[in-house]
Amino acid sequence: FSDAITIYTGSSIQVFGLLRGAPYRFRVSARNDAGLTSAPTNWFTFSSEPAVPRTLPAPSVAASDAGLLVSWALPVSNEGTGGSPITGFVVIVRREDEAVPSVGINVGLLTSYSALSLTANYRYAFAVTASNIA
């Protein structure tokens, strides 16, 4: 923890730029017009709830001898992960003639997926979603 001192005149304050899921400690003291300051309150610990991870950038797709290799980057920023570590990825595959994509394929924490046994002469679309505890 690090201390930050903010002088504010009012009965409430809004703090911006806090990271989701990170713990923060606050305490308050008051100063009157005569310059007398009260003892600070006990520490109040606050942590915001994690949010769902942000949408990942489009995965990259490369041809391999056996099919297509789909890969993506692991989000590492607090903003990208929703404030909680990523717990897994799901790859969604859709062949161009399918109205509804296939059921998602859970690949755990891997950041690549080998799409094998694809039907020749069709185009495929791939999407990747991330999950965390939120």
Major sheet size, sense and barrel closure: 3 strands, antiparallel
Mean pLDDT: 84
Alpha carbon gyration radius: 24 Å
Number of helices: 1
Net shape: rod-shaped
Give the helix/strand class: mainly beta
β-strand percent reads 25-35%
**Uncertain regions: pLDDT < 50 for 5+ in a row?**
none
* Percent helix: under 10%
The beta-strand count equals 8
Order of helices and strands: EEEEHEEEE
In the sheet with the most strands, the strands line up as 3-4-7
The end-to-end distance, rounded to whole angstroms, is 25 Å
Summary tags:
134 residues, 31% strand, mainly beta, 3-stranded antiparallel beta sheet, 1 helix, single chain, 3% helix
Q: Could you explain how this protein is built, in words?
A:
- There is one protein chain.
- This protein is mainly beta and 134 residues long.
- It contains 1 helix and 8 strands, in the order E-E-E-E-H-E-E-E-E.
- It has one helix at 78-81, and strands spanning 23-26, 44-47, 60-63, 67-71, 88-95, 105-108, 112-116, 124-131.
- Strands 3-4-7 form a 3-stranded antiparallel beta sheet, with no helix packed on it. Strands 6-5-8 form a 3-stranded antiparallel beta sheet, with no helix packed on it. Strands 1-2 form a two-stranded antiparallel ribbon.
- It starts with 22 loop residues before the first strand and ends with a strand.
Describe, in short, the structure shown.
The chain has one helix and eight strands. The chain has one helix at 78-81; strands spanning 23-26, 44-47, 60-63, 67-71, 88-95, 105-108, 112-116, 124-131.
